[in-house]
Amino acid sequence: MKHNNTRGRASAQASFTLVGSLLLLTPPAVAADALTTDSSEDLDTVQVTANRIPQLQNDVLASTDVITRDEIDRLQANSLVDLLQSRNGIEVARSGPMGSQTSLFMRGTESDHTLILVNGQRVANSADGLAHFEFLPLAAVERVEIVRGPRASVYGADAIGGVINLITRGGSEVGQHAEVTLRAGSDGTFRQNAQFSSVEDDTRLSANLHHDESDGFSARDTGSEDDGYEATGAELRLGHDFGQQATLSLGVANTETDYDYDDCYDSSFSASEDCHGEGSQMVLDASLLTHLNPNWDMTVSVARTRDEYENTEAGSDAGRVASTRNEVGLRHDFYTDLGTLSLGVDHREESLDADGPYFTAEGYSVDSRYATGVYGSWHLQQQRHHVTTSLRYDDDNRYGHQMTGGSSYAYDLTAAQQLGASYSSAFKAPNLIDLYSPYGSGNPDLDAETSTTAELFWRLQQHHWHLGLNAFQTDIDNLISYEGVDFSPINIDRSRIRGVELSSGWQGEALSVNLAMTWQDPEDRDTGEQLKRRAQRFARLDADYALDDWSFGATLRGSASRSDTDADTYTDTRTAGYGVVDLRTSWQVMPNVKLSAKLDNVFDREYQLVNGYNTQGRYVEGGVTFFF
User: Fold this and answer.
1) CB-CB neighbours of 3 under 10 Å
2) Per the domain annotation, does 97 fall within a domain?
3) Whole-prediction pTM value?
4) Domain range holding 353?
5) Using an 8 Å Cβ cutoff, are 282 and 303 in contact?
6) Which of 31, 326, 420, 589 is the most buried (most CB within 10 A)?
7) Is the dihedral of CA 108, 111, 115, 116 positive or negative?
8) What CA–CA distance (Å, rounded) separates 601 from 582?
């Protein structure tokens, strides 16, 4: 069933205390001497998402994570949702098996307050403003970059809670390389993936094919039939260096999905479990990076995204919704003794096409819009001082203009410790359905949702060990709520989220341990209640050990209870807290063959992320990867 965005006290004390106690596993600082960039993998990690330019992760004045391809393979995650669940500041709520409606809440903000990118390009649906995670296959991903906290002054609308950027796989090793992965698991699950890359001289080519299918399980806890899922996709990327002067990158990706779900309604508004949907998404992108001189780079980018959904409810055609987004951008980066200055402009056009018994394309009073943004940012590092500031102006032809900004400052207390603070504003644009719904409930006079966020952070990096602490407060105004008998959207709600995030990790030669814990108070300022489907405490612990050709790992995820709406009575209720243990192992049988297996939800814990909807029970999966 498709759910509207919802705003999620009690506790899962036992499970959360268990996770918290595991903090004792994290080793103390091993020495007072600092770890230099050359000896730390974390400090060497380059990320591009926070400010749209390559930066060492330790130089970014924001709370960030980078999940590499090696970590994705080690965790054996089946989806982006599985990979991100319970990481610092991130909660997910999925109403059933894979393919079901999924919401992602970053730092307690709404599910459409996190900007989802693929290779730096937006992929959220233009109609409802949500990213559909079934279109984001991990098989094609090289790394995932996460930035917690607002980034509207860099990217424009929608980045109130943060940004998640999926960077797809490309050739990195000279020569031709290929790998094929075959996996099978519980619930009739089968996964196949083939990856090929070629790097010759200045040209890089990569291709990925993947297919996932599963019989699934019943989405509703009152249902009896399984809700299956199937997805097939392909990605192709081409890159070429024109000497030392320019780099061209081209990409195309297409994914098609087929899924079942529960609680849909036919034309007589009778509930049914016989619900079926199909979807597709195609993304085209191209960029050209030109080195105009040693201190001046120019980047031109274009992208086109088209997605389409067609639902069959209770055996009848329920209609089709398709949206298209075209984007173009120009950015100049100047590298000077006074820091790095970036200046850019981008333009985005969105259109909507819909038909079916419930609505027609003509039902939308307006079915398109465009927005233009101009932005600039400055990054300075002088001895122990670090400064980042940014400013952006956005003009939308439907809801007007917005000015956003952000400033961050950090001071190196020692060579190993840093203390900093930041303050930023952000906004969320109303989506096309909010503005021009064909049901007679659209509101073209809606304003953008606006926010401010203040943050303090401290981080420590020692040999093989790191520790970070972030405290933040986000105030959001003009939240869109659906009121009246026709559920018309209006700007009425306000929320405030206060929180603390703790991250710690140990990376030894054989043992790695990573802990992420979040305490937050996501409050509806109009009612004083906890925002729905958001917990006040949640945590995740990952531990892995490598022994010769073997590796062994475990993950413990825990969450306190959450406020929710009863799926049957539509009254306020709570979903219980939970703790889940996952195990995994792999064996490099020979240089070109690797076996892997995992056991998720080892103790078959029953819990719900959305009231009335099931989650995965004990799950077993194994597979083999061939390298060529």
Assistant:
1) 18
2) yes
3) 0.89
4) 13-627
5) no
6) 420
7) positive
8) 5
Pairing of strands 162-168, 114-118: parallel
* 5, part of any domain: no
Q: What DSSP character marks residue 429?
A: P
Q: Is 184 exposed, middle or buried (0-12, 13-18, 19+ CB in 10 A)?
A: middle
441 token code pair:
């409930």
Q: CA 476 to CA 491: how far, in whole Å?
A: 11
Domains held by the chain: number: 1
Say if 473 falls within a structural domain.
Answer: yes
Give the CATH number of the domain where residue 82 resides.
Answer: 2.40.170.20
- Would you call 14 helix, strand, or coil by DSSP? helix
Is 4 a domain residue? no
Distance CA 249, CA 570 (A): 49
Angle of CA points 454, 460, 462, to nearest 5°: 160
The number of residues in the chain equals 628
3-state secondary structure 350-414: EEEEEECCCCCHHHCCCCEEEEEEEEEEEEEEECCEEEEEEEEEEEECCCEEEEEEEEEEEEECC
Give the residue among 48, 281, 260, 10 at the shortest CA–CA distance from 143: 48
Rounded distance, CA 617 to CA 154, Å?
A: 41
Give the H or E element holding residue 252. Answer: strand 246-261
Residue type, 159: A
Beta pairing, strands 578-590 & 550-559: antiparallel
At 108-121, the pLDDT tens digits run 999 899 999 999 99
Please, are residues 255 and 236 in contact by the beta-carbon 8 Å criterion? no
Q: Which helix (H) or strand (E) is 467 found in, with range? A: strand 465-483
Residues 552-584 have pLDDT tens digits of 999 999 999 999 999 888 899 999 999 999 999
DSSP category for residue 220:
B
Q: In the structure encoding, which two tokens stand for residue 392, read together? A: 């952006």
The tokens describing 334, both together, are: 């100047």
Instruction: For residue 100, give the DSSP letter.
Output: S
- 566 near 574, Cβ under 8 Å? no
Torsion of CA 206, 38, 63, 65, to 10 degrees: 30
